[in-house]
């Protein structure tokens, strides 16, 4: 790995020798240059790891696993606590790197690192709460209970839009559960991942623990396929497109492995006639344009009661005109660039197709040019008046495109919301309790996340994160998501003097 640009002065700087990067093995002649979407300047070069390098890392993880799982869970939690403290020190520098490499606003870059800190705090508490149930046995003088054990190696495949936070959601929980991790970040954002690995490497070294507890592998889709097919990987947690997730699920399923899938989203907000528009407008705008529309929880569809439709549409267009688009490291800007030129092409193609299908362009549809835009990846967030018969509205495009619909009854609005293949995040704005409760009922949202009077983005780490249908059904982060990273064992102890059998069965022996 050759670092060409390090303007962020991380306390754990990149080492110009590939052997100095914890768990990253250079085993390929294929080198790629990573350019920032902010200004198209190179951040550095990385060599993509091949199958030989992959096997080396798996061996390192296997060697580290017995050492790590033998530590009491609260001791593992202490290591995660130290990592959280190290992230606090590096928050500003790492947040800037995330912002520069991915293109999200600086505030969002800081926020992503804060999510890592928060999940570390959550995991520290969890390390003392890996509870199992105790059940009453039907046999006298018997005790029956369940307990949880580590799985082994947890493979983590993450996407470019959250270069570090989603990894932390998985790894922090995996570590306190006693697992070791093998992380394949997106090859579009490897430097943020390598920086995290360097920070954690210091924590491991300070505590005389093997580096193989946490491993980063920089590779393309071939490495992801190796992880999915490898029986040494007990669990594959994959975040990304539905197409990728289906491939992972099929491959892991063939070997009866475990998987957590957090895939596409096509999220909607319903605005009822009982909504407080002053409360609604900011979450709608942020949900639609935050991270330049490159979140799985991005608001892509807005379903508005017909009595408010024209007024809210005008408010939105006015708000969009006030958005400041530009260098995301400038905290005065609201919206940064798309990740690359392919994303820009998808943005333009989708808008064109939506118009062909009968959509009316209300605002946007422009690639921004000029000296203030230092790459060709800046676009105007776009609003399209749509109808439910347009096939394009069921397709997720990772870009700031918002489709707006009108409706007459709440039942109709919920039907529109649920009538897409994805089922991640959803929201309703209403000050009417009956409407809110209907939205949250069994007849309401079919998504894994359902919010009232807040937007579709901004999930907290305390709750389980994930969705249904083509979103994959997996859950990460809070609540009892930790159970996916462990194996359950039911135990029965006979503390009596007789070998009694279940169901009262007896043998005359």
TrEMBL record:
Its EC number is 1.2.1.3. SUPFAM superfamilies: ALDH-like. The active site is at 262. It is an enzyme of class 1 (oxidoreductase). GO terms for molecular function: aldehyde dehydrogenase (NAD+) activity. Keywords: NAD, Oxidoreductase. InterPro entries: Ald_DH/histidinol_DH, Ald_DH_C, Ald_DH_CS_GLU, Ald_DH_N, Aldehyde_DH_dom, ALDH7A1-like. It comes from the Bacteria. Residues 24-490 form the Aldehyde dehydrogenase domain. Homotetramer. Belongs to the aldehyde dehydrogenase family. This is aldehyde dehydrogenase (NAD(+)). It comes from Seonamhaeicola maritimus.
